[in-house]
Every structure is written in C-alpha cells, then in structure tokens.
C-alpha cells in the first residue's frame, strides 16, 4: 500500500495536465491488468468449454450471464468502498479509511454466503427463465452450481480491491489477479479435460481460484488495518453504513444487468448459433469494457481524493483529462477489436456459422467503443464523487430507452449474423448512447461536486 509521502505527492502535483496524466497512468495501468484478468476468466472458460461443442458453449453463455449478474449487482462493494476510502484519505484520516474497507469486507463475506446458497438452489429456475431447454439448460445448470461456492470469494475480492483502490494501490490487486488468471487457466484445462469433468470442471476451477484470490487480498487489507490502528471485528454501524451507501449503486448496477440479461434473452430467442456467437462477442466486449474501466477506477480514486481535500479545480482537471484518455483508448480498442475479429474468433469456436455471426457483431460493437470510453470514465467520476442517487435514476431511464429496441430485434431481426448484428447495434449503440447523454449532462453541472467526508 502507498505511504503517507505518496499521498502527499499526489496532492502536491496540483492541476498540471502532465502531473495528472502521470497519476492517471500510475493508477490505471495496474488497474487495467487486474481488470483484464477478470474477463480473462470468462474468455478462458469460453475457449476451453467451446471445444466441447455448441451446447456446452451456449450453456456457458447462460450460466456465466447469471453468475456475472450476481457479482455485478454486488459491484457496489468495490465502488462505494473506493469512493469512501479515497475521501477519507484525502481528508487525512487513514485509520478511518481502512475501517471503512474492513466493514465492507465483512458485508461482502455475509452477502456472499447467502448468495452462494441461493444461486445453487435456484440454478434450474434461473436458467429456465432465460429460455433455455434440453441439453443447453443441463450444461448451464452444471456450470452454475459448480461455480456457486466461489461467490463468497468473488465478493471479498470486490470489497478488498475497492479498499485498496481507495488507498491509491492498484498494484496489489494486479498481482493477485494475474496469478489468479494463470491458476484459473491451469485448473480449467486440468479439470475439464484431465479429470474429465466437462463444463462442471470449468465452474469448479473458477470457484477455487476466486477463493484463493480472496484470501490473498484479505491478508493485505488486514495487515494495513492493523498498522493504521483500525478495528478488525465487524461493526454493525459500519456495515450498515456501507450497505446504505451502496444501495443507489446497486440500483444503478441492476439497470445495467437487466439490460444485459435482456440482451441474452433476445439472443436466446434468435437461436443456438446466435446465442453461441453472442457469448463470444460478450466475452470480448467484457475484456474491452474492463480495460476502459481502468480509467474509470483512476477517476474514482482521484476524484474522491480531491473532493475529500475540498480541491474542486483539481476535480475538474481530473474529469477533463480522464475523458480525453477514455475517448482515445476507446478508439484504439475499436480498431483492434473490429479489425482483428476474423483472426481471433476461431479461438472460441470451430463452428463456421457461429464464427460468422460473432465477427459481424464484433465489427458493429467496435464502432461504438469511443463512446463507451466516454461513458465508463463519466461513470467512474460520478461514482468517485458519491453521486449514486443520480446514477440510479439515470440507469433506470436508460434501461427504459433500450427495452423497446431490444424487443424489436427479437421480434423482427433476421436469423444468423444479421440478427446478432442488429442486437449489438441496439445494445452497444442505443443503450450506450443513452448512458452517454445522461452522464454527460450531469457532469456539466456542479451538483455532484460535494466536498469533505
């Protein structure tokens, strides 16, 4: 974790663009590595399971959607903690900052145990609700149930990572995530093919990896809390404060996950080929989105730190520079994802129809990447400012805009590659544009710039 001298250096840089750029890169580059490692879990699962056949890959698409939805709804454990810890660090209260982090981790552990049990029990119903049947449904339930025991670890990773980001430490999560990605790949291959567990082995490998990552990050945060004099036992008031602060972000994330679930439901209705192709596109989109989110994480920490220190001009400077970085990074990613799609898609499937559908949809998604960079950065800025209530309302509004377009695709889209392309035009185009408009309008004002702790 960073020292008090490093925090002083952050404040002393002031509002110079070159200094802010260095801080953005110092936080974003390690965060990028950690975030990219997370969707690599899904990419590895997709590559390993994809060669078992179309039904297992389609089943993985449904099961991973449910699992990622459960985790995604709890991302407030990271985001709210990052913002709160960064504010306290900016105000000079290191012990209080670590106390917030510890309380968030206790909340994550309790919530993870409950969700693990609920996910295992409700797995058949959840998969059926997404419209799957027969062999695809059986494969999906297998993966979901073998993955469920890893949920407490996954949520602990979120909370502990959020605490470290608030402390301006993105390097430790990077190391843990990198090791986890390697271990996950090895376990998947060993359990799926070596032991012969099939798709169940992929789920088990991911669960074991996440539990190991949680242990490693918990040790780091606990050591820092002891050094700062923070308490390690759960505090009811602190846990409740974390839950209350995270509720608006939960609603905001719920709107995003509902949009993603709606997209999967539409893909399921289009057919097995389209659903399998959607899994490939979604995995690659997730990789790109998490890469852009690295800039959002830098914005969260730096904006929270500046608001805690009551430095509004610095907040504006961070906003301006991170937006420039986000749009530029989105343009580069779009060129790579769209231009090279035909070369990397075969890594996920040997089915020609699935390949064709995935490539066309990836080109459509690639065009929207600069706009996605704008959206992700502004999300990070407003989360870092603690503007969760606005994000909750805006999220539901953008979902309402997207729903009729998604339903129109399900009703009228042609089969095959064209249908999947129309679906991604609706999601990556219409939905992301609505998010860009709402967050951009908010960022132009000053209501979100509340200083202090």
TrEMBL record:
Top-level taxon of the source organism: Bacteria
- Does the keyword Transmembrane belong to this entry? yes
Transmembrane spans: 24-44, 56-85, 106-127, 147-167, 174-193, 199-222, 254-273, 285-310, 322-345, 357-378, 390-409, 415-434
Report the locations given in the UniProt record.
Cell membrane
Q: Which coarse location class applies to the principal site listed for this UniProt protein?
A: membrane
List the Pfam families. Answer: MatE
The UniProt record lists the keyword Ubl conjugation? no
Q: Provide the topology term for how it sits in the membrane.
A: Multi-pass membrane protein
Name the keywords, alphabetized.
Answer: Cell membrane, Membrane, Transmembrane, Transmembrane helix, Transport
Q: Which InterPro entries match?
A: DinF-like, MATE_fam, MdtK-like
Q: Which PANTHER family match?
A: PROTEIN DETOXIFICATION 44, CHLOROPLASTIC (PTHR42893:SF46), PROTEIN DETOXIFICATION 44, CHLOROPLASTIC-RELATED (PTHR42893)
The text of the family note is: Belongs to the multi antimicrobial extrusion (MATE) (TC 2.A.66.1) family.
What is the name listed in the Swiss-Prot or TrEMBL entry for this protein? MATE family efflux transporter
Taxonomic lineage from the root: Bacteria, Bacillati, Actinomycetota, Actinomycetes, Micrococcales
């Amino acid at each position: 974790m960073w020292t008090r001298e490093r925090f002083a250096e952050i404040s002393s840089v002031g509002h110079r663009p070159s200094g802010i750029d260095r801080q953005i890169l110092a936080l974003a580059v390690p965060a990028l590595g950690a975030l990219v490692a997370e969707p690599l879990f899904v990419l590895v699962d997709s590559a390993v399971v994809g060669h078992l056949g179309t039904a297992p890959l389609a089943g993985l698409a449904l099961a991973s959607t449910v699992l990622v939805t459960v985790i995604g709804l709890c991302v407030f454990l990271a985001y709210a903690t990052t913002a709160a810890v960064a504010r306290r660090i900016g105000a000079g209260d290191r012990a209080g900052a670590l106390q917030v982090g510890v309380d968030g981790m206790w909340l994550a552990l309790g919530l993870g145990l409950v969700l693990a049990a609920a996910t295992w029990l409700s797995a058949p119903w959840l998969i059926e609700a997404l419209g799957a049947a027969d062999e695809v449904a059986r494969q999906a339930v297998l993966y979901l149930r073998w993955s469920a025991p890893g949920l407490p670890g996954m949520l602990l990773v979120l909370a502990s990572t959020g605490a470290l980001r608030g402390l301006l430490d993105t390097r430790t999560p990077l190391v843990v995530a990198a090791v986890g990605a390697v271990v996950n790949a090895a376990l998947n291959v060993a359990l799926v093919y070596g032991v012969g567990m099939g798709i169940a082995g992929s789920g088990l490998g991911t669960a074991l990896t996440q539990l190991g990552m949680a242990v490693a990050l918990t040790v780091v945060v606990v050591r820092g809390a002891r050094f700062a004099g923070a308490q390690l036992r759960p505090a009811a008031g602190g846990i409740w404060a974390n839950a209350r602060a995270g509720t608006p972000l939960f609603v905001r994330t719920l709107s995003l996950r509902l949009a993603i679930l709606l997209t999967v439901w539409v893909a399921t209705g289009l057919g097995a080929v389209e659903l399998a192709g959607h899994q490939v596109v979604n995995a690659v989109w997730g990789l790109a989105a998490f890469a852009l989110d690295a800039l959002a994480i830098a914005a969260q920490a730096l904006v929270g730190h500046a608001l805690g220190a009551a430095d509004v001009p610095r907040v504006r400077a961070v906003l301006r520079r991170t937006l420039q970085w986000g749009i530029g990074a989105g343009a580069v990613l779009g060129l790579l994802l769209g231009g090279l799609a035909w070369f990397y898609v075969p890594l996920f499937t040997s089915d020609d129809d699935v390949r064709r559908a995935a490539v066309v949809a990836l080109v459509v998604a690639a065009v929207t990447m600069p706009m996605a960079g704008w959206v992700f950065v502004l999300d990070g800025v407003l989360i870092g400012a603690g503007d969760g209530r606005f994000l909750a309302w805006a999220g539901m509004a953008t979902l309402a805009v997207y729903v009729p377009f998604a339903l129109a695709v399900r009703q009228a889209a042609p089969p095959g590659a064209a249908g999947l392309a129309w679906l991604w035009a609706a999601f990556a185009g219409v939905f992301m544009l609505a998010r860009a408009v709402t967050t951009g309008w908010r960022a132009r004002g000053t209501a979100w710039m509340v200083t202090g702790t």
